[in-house]
Amino acid sequence: MTGALSRLSTSGRFLVAPVCLTVAILAFGAAVPEFPTIANAGNVLAQMWVLTLLAVGQMFALLTRGFDISVGAVAALSSTVAALAANHWGLPALPLGALAGLVCGGLNGLMIGSLGIQPIVATLGMFVGARGLALLITDGGQVVPLSQSGIAAALAYNSLAGIPPIAWMALAVVVAAAWVLNRSVLGRRIVMLGSNPDAAWLVGIHPWRVHLAAYGLCGLFAGFAGLLITIRAGSGLPTEGTGMELQAIAAAVIGGTALTGGVGRVSGVVVGAAFIQVLFTGLNLSGISPFLAGVAVGVVIIGSGLLEYALRRFLSPLEQNRRMA
Amino acid sequence: MTMAAAGSPSIRFAYRPPASAAIAFVAFVFFAILVPRFPTLGNLENVIRVASILCIAACGQAVVLILGGIEFSFGSSVALASVVTVLTLPDTGTLGAFAVGAGVVVLVGAVNGTLIARFELPSFLVTLGTLMIGAGLASTIAGGLPIDAPASDAFSWLARGRIAGIPVPIALAVLSVAVLYFLLAHTRLGRFWYLAGANVNAARLAGINVRFVVFAGYVVAGAFCAVTALILTSRVASGQPNLAPNLPFETIAACAIGGIPLAGGQGRASQVVYGVLIIAMMNNAVVLLNFPVAYQRLMIAAVIIGSVLLQKLAGKGWQTGARSGGSS
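Structure tokens for the assembled complex are given below, as produced in the milestone run.
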């Protein structure tokens, strides 16, 4: 049934991010002398992970045909909770921040899955609510400095085989996400619910449980992003992450995740996030307005949609011929 | 006011107010009892003045939601319009600058409409893209900083002036709602929006030029948003590259609270009004109560979720019976 051609049209979407990343690296490499240095490559590899974690989480929500606009606010809340917990109980309590993210995501999942509220309304509520909560526990948005910031700085800025330890940890979490998506029953259920909700229902999958898990994972990854923010900044930042939700969706979409659900790869999302990071870094180094990065990201988003339209246009007649033959 | 747009294009009801009307009424009584300064004439005018700016853009969002789409680009097209308006002001005069600013927003709507209608791209993707492009352009043009406009009475009239004693934003909001009501309930185009939003294939099979109908919807949405953009620009009297980043979310929330389902094919002008009023009353009340910002945010979150949930429960009785299959 699924011939080489239809496989090409589905895998074509995953080519957008690598091509864009390559073009961006080559262009900046040729135009900006500071860009193609090992130090700068290490910079990009150290900085891209907050966006990557948010985008990987976002992918799980997108896979179920939904999306989550609360990830930036949830990351800020997690960052704050992590810093407060670490100051109260010592540095090993830092991961409690990720737990806060998981709870927020789980609440989103419950609202969407079992109460049937549309994702935009539910996560909009969380977007406003998580910000409010972050302000509430910090006396109106005060930064929470870590008392043991030395260890955090070592984690964030020492070099372990070229990139900081914290980046390795983020990479490990991302690999775990790929494992969940591709190798676990849960991951397959998320994909199934996204590609055909009715079929998923008929084979006995409880949609609300899958929604709970998908948005829970999204919140958990926003929580990890919050931890990363705290460790890198050496403090909890309750007002961080504004605008990150849309960048995360952009990275996921450029990375080939379908808004119609059921199609997505972790590797694609990572490359999508890397592309956005390269754009920001490159434009900053080149001295051109860094705001143009937004324009480039927007053009790539719409361009990837147009590419898909073109592929569909040109491949579908061929597909039909195959079926008839 | 009774604005009886039938909830579904084929079935006519005797006028029945949407569930959000009841919520708005209860909220009004509740705040009036709880907050002594709330039901004074001056404060209520203030509430409606704030509501009116959101209301006009929400009218545009409602058209897009009825089409089954979603519009994010409001967030940056407003900012782009404000920057462009202030930059062209010295050359073109107030009226010309307003025309150019409004043109920018309508143009963004037309670009969205073309990409969505002609190339059948998802509205989510397209408007997210144009949101980012617009924000980038606005910041690049302005250099990341606000540009002050030379102070003039003509320029600030849109936000601060009065027509026959009524503040201009309120008058424009009433006009916008009337236009939306007329379009939705009394024009062929409006009825086609419902049909295209409820079932694109059926609309196409019925011989409707779906491409034009959808395109027109996004242009009209842009036109509504343009009015909001001009009022906001006039109010801040400067070109702000970061003018109203949350406008898309606020307008979507207003429509959702008003009871317009995001699945498309349904919604009426009165629901926009109730949704906007609920948000504005609540914002005003929490400020009057002098709660810390943190509690304000938490209350707003609770109201967004709560009122949508309430309507889901209340609407099970009669709303669902009115349409055939409904949302997935």
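The two ends of chain B are 33 Å apart (CA to CA). Chain B touches chain A through 49 residues (CB under 8 Å). Further analysis is deferred to the final report.
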